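Quick one, probably user error.
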């Protein structure tokens, strides 16, 4: 039986935890219709988790701690996904699945061929939080501000960066395992693909050009596949 998980700032009192966040209280009482005696897992974004039993529910929820542990699902590496803002719901799908498979940081990217130039930040943050809860993450991945590729590539001190484009060599789990470094940056282009100048600048800045396969992938598909390969190798 699935135990529902919630990220938040919780008050620990004696051997119990008090839930005061109105949104979480509403979710537990009115959406999931959980009852007194049922168990849930509370997480603090620092990989700490408490399995608790619901004791009392009104405007706040009182629980008693059954057990506590550190989340062991997180990778030792930090995976930073730079993904071009995609049209319609495609960007939201890319973000949701990237979180579910293990990325730690997401930067919405504006490239030469990006059509949509903004995001609904609060909605994306909610999608990230819910995806982290659903997939049993130990953290809530960070959403960076929208940035332009031309500015990002000028930054000094970039970590190992992988530029996803069909012109590169095929990436695999085995090749990713050999990568040294604690942080990996992944760049995913827009629906129209990278421009020639962007590909050239990636090579000039010593980004590793990698292919995700022989087929032409949609932006959201490429983001999900790349996120999975780099997060689970």
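Nope, works fine. Designed sequence:
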């Amino acid at each position: 039986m699935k135990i529902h998980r919630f990220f938040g700032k919780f008050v620990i009192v004696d051997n119990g935890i008090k839930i005061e966040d109105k949104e979480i209280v509403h979710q537990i009482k009115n959406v999931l219709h959980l009852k007194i005696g049922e168990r849930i897992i509370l997480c603090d974004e620092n990989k700490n988790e408490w399995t608790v039993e619901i004791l009392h529910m009104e405007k706040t929820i009182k629980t008693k701690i059954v057990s506590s542990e550190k989340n062991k699902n997180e990778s030792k590496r930090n995976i930073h996904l730079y993904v071009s803002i995609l049209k319609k719901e495609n960007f939201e799908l890319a973000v949701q699945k990237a979180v579910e498979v293990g990325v730690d940081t997401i930067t919405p990217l504006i490239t030469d061929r990006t059509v949509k130039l903004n995001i609904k930040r609060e909605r994306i943050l909610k999608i990230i939080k819910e995806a982290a809860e659903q997939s049993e993450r130990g953290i809530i991945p960070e959403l960076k501000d929208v940035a332009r590729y031309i500015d990002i590539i000028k930054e000094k001190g970039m970590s190992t960066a992988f530029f996803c484009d069909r012109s590169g060599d095929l990436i695999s789990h085995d090749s990713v395992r050999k990568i040294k470094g604690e942080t990996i940056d992944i760049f995913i282009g827009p629906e129209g693909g990278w421009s020639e100048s962007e590909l050239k600048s990636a090579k000039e800045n010593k980004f590793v050009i990698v292919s995700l396969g022989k087929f032409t992938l949609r932006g959201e598909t490429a983001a999900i596949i790349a996120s999975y390969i780099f997060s689970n190798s």
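Residues 5-70 form a domain with the Ribosomal Protein L25; Chain P fold (CATH 2.40.240.20).
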